[in-house]
Amino acid sequence: MEREDKIKEDKLREERRRGKLPKLTPKVNEVDMEKEVTAIEVEPAEPVVKKPRRGKAPPSYIPAAGESGFIEKVITINRVTKVTKGGKKLSFSALVVVGDTKGKVGYSLGKAGEVATAIKKALLLAKRSMVTIPLKGSTIPHEVLGEWGAARVLLKPASDGTGVIAAGPVRAICDGAGIRNILTKCHRSNNPINVIKATMDGLSRLKPFNPPVESTPVSEESHATA
C-alpha cells in the first residue's frame, strides 16, 4: 500500500509540475516553518546601539564593546534555499566583522542551518583571521584605494572632528579597527562581501606612520674639544 501511495503522489506531482492540475496550498507545517524563519530574521541578536548622524560623530565616539572586549557587528544575513528531490532545504549565511578598536580587525562569512549557529561560526572565524592596521592617531596614514572583484573603495585620512564618513560595511571595519576620522567612497559594486574585502585590501596595504626624528643641535664646546 505504501508503494502504491508513493506512485500516486509521484504522478500527481508530475502532472502538477506540467500545469495539468492546480497548485495545492502549502501545508500547515510549511507555513509554520516560514513564520518561524521570519521571526528569527526579525529578532535582533543583540541590543541595537544608537549612533550619531552621518558626519556628526565626535572624535571620541567608539561603539560599545561586548563582554569579550571586541566589537562584533553582523553586516548581512542571507537565506539560501536549495531545491532537492525531497523538498526545499533552508540554510543561512552571516557576514560578520570583529575588532578590538586598537588597530586589529577581521571579518568572516559563516554558513549553517540556523541563524544563531551561522553567526557563532562567523564570529569564531573572524577572531582567528584578525589583522593589524597601521594608524596615525585616530585616522589612517595616507590615501589608499582598495580593490576586490568589481568593488573599489577609496579611503582618505581626515582631521579630528570629521567622524566616519562611510557606508555600512566600511563603517563596521573602521569602527572595529578604531578609526574615528576618515573619508571613504565606494565605486562600482555595492555588494557587501566585495566591499568589505576591498576595504580590507586597502587597509592592509597602508604603510606605517613614522614621525620625523628631531635632530639634537651640536654645541660649540663639542666642536672646540674636537
What does this structure look like?
The chain is α+β, with helices and mostly antiparallel strands and 226 residues long. It is built from 6 helices and 8 strands; from the N terminus they run H-H-E-E-E-H-E-E-E-E-H-E-H-H. Strand 5 and strand 6 (151-157) form a beta hairpin. Helix 4 (168-177) runs parallel beside helix 5. Residues 35-45 and 54-61 have low confidence and may be disordered.
Rg, nearest Å: 26 Å
CATH class of the domain at 71-204: Alpha Beta
Strand content: 25-35%
Main β-sheet description: 4 strands, antiparallel
> What CATH architecture of the domain at 71-204 would you give?
2-Layer Sandwich
Helix-and-strand structural type: alpha+beta
Please name the CATH topology of the domain at 71-204.
Answer: Ribosomal Protein S5, domain 2
Kindly report the average pLDDT value: 79
**Count of separate DSSP helical elements:** 6
Query: Would you identify the regions where 5 or more consecutive residues have pLDDT less than 50?
Result: 35-45, 54-61
The largest sheet has its strands arranged as 1-2-3-4
Number of strands: 8
Order of helices and strands: HHEEEHEEEEHEHH
Helix content: 25-40%
